[in-house]
Amino acid sequence: MTLGGSKGEVDIHVMMNMYWEKLDFEIPVLPNRMFKVLDTAEPSPHDIVDPGNEVEVDGSVCPVQGRSIVVLVSK
Description:
By secondary structure, the protein is mostly beta strands. The chain has a single domain, classed as Immunoglobulin-like (Sandwich). It has no helices and 7 strands. It has strands at residues 2-3, 12-17, 23-26, 34-39, 55-56, 61-64, 68-74. The protein has a 5-stranded antiparallel sheet, with no helix packed on it. The chain is globular, with a radius of gyration of 12 Å.
């Protein structure tokens, strides 16, 4: 699911994998790069990234572990 920002706001892309195995999700083509801000498969406190420490996602596919959620934002 993608929530498109308006008037200069970031775009938010949410990927939810309710399957028990890892799945690859396509990332939407946007004019800005996408950065991972949340991954519920990571152990706390690494599951949520502090502002300014987001990790850029390379390519057009993002792996999402089984029964987890990943959130990307555009910058």
